[in-house]
Fold this protein.
Amino acid sequence: MIPGLHVHQLHKRYGSIAALADVSLTVREGEVLGVIGPNGAGKTTLFECIAGVLPADSGTVMVKDQPVPGPDRGSHLFFMPDGIAPWASQTVGWALDFTVGFFGGDAARLAGVIERLHIEPLMRRRAGTLSKGERKRVLLAIAMLTPQPLMMADEPFDGLDLRQSREVGTALREHAAAGRTVFLSIHQIADAERVCDRFVLLSAGRVCGEGTLDELTALARARLAVDDAGRRQGADPNGLEEVVLALT
Amino acid sequence: MASRSWWVMLLLIGPLVGMAFISAVRTYGELSGVNGTVAGVGEAFSPLIGIWAPTFSACELAAAFLLPFVTIRLVSGDRQSGALKLELQHPMPAMARMSAKAIVLLAAWIIASLPPLLGIVLWRLYGGTTYAPELTAVFAGHVLNAGLTVALACATAAVTDHPSTVHARSKHVARAEADRGTRRISRRISTASSRSNMSLAASQGPAGTALHRIRTCSRRTTRSFVLPCRARGPLGQDRQHQLFQRLRDRFEVTTRYSPCAKLHFCSSVFLHRLPPSRKRRRLAEALAEAGGHSRPTTRGSSCWSPIRAAQS
């Protein structure tokens, strides 16, 4: 088995709605993996169940072939949720220092992360007064300062403009190149295509495909309907956007 | 330090304690002084009852009405902002996490308890006497009371989603409640924190009753077990005498009365044995000693009082 994190047959229901149904996937060490899917596909639920923040109905999360119960996953991975505004009455500088101290992050990386995500002008501002994009960059900085080998971020490009999206994408790639595994939930296909090494396509709580762009393209081609004469119906999927449309 | 509700509590607890302390000192002086002076302060009454009970009662008010807000803001605020989702990912035992929050809240409470401690300093500067064990007991009791409030507020905050006004949430609660009466009440409650406080208020009664029962039961149980062990058979007359002698050696009871109380005591206990003429004379002497000018009546001496004497 490939070293990394394995999710095996994860199930989660909200009443009569199946948010996750038999979800299995693998996060390989040192890669940038992106979960792509439409709204309501179950991306956030999947991340919360993997992180142990939300209890799953069934299924296992394994690290190095060993099942890890929810409360113990904090030592293997860090999950940054979307749409949160933690420690709103504290300054950004305090929040970053607290993250390093509380989670045992590397204080030497602090200056580099601040510079890479352009957070220096925000350091003395209260976290509750930041705009959506500024808050997103601060949350990503918090996630990048944590010491766990796997970093999960829900919608890291949400609220960022084009320039910031590109800069954050580059920062995430550099972060992964420095030896950390990055697992992202994205619904902006262009950003996902630029940042991620592999993709997991999720739709209606089910995994529709997993692999690199080439592997998913081949899968999409294979699933295209074939007529009686043996000819494929519809054009060949070209690019991640068409692959996603074809498979989800 | 960044909690606004804590700063509000700090701002309010100062005037509350100050007002309680000043009125307690004034009442203490008025009641125990002689002829409107402050002579005898510290002798007639115990400062525990006269000063510290009313002064620390302001802390009781703060613990009931202000501390729950601080606690609810801390617990529910973390849930609402998402900070709890980050904190939960630290591989720390749940008990350690809860203990850390409880210690922080109790530390905040102890800082907020500085005004009554300042009252102790002021009391010493006024020339009053203090007894460290009783003050420590009062302070520790109020810290324990704050701990109970913190625990109940944490429990109620844990079952609410949002610490601030969410009308939609109250509508949701109203829909969820099957009972019509409960639904009507839920519609009126527009804030989640109000619901927390209602739960807190509702749970404090049973908790207090339970604590009282536990204390009474434990006391009875202790007595039931300890007294038969100590008695070792029926007490003879010699042993009774020895026991009373030992008690007399160990305990010294000093009773001091204010002049008015002395008069009332004399009139109600001793004067009924005297003939009317001597009774009248003794009362007049006692009143003159206390600064009174009126002639007291000898009828119904058991209910004689300086106020009635002044009226007559």
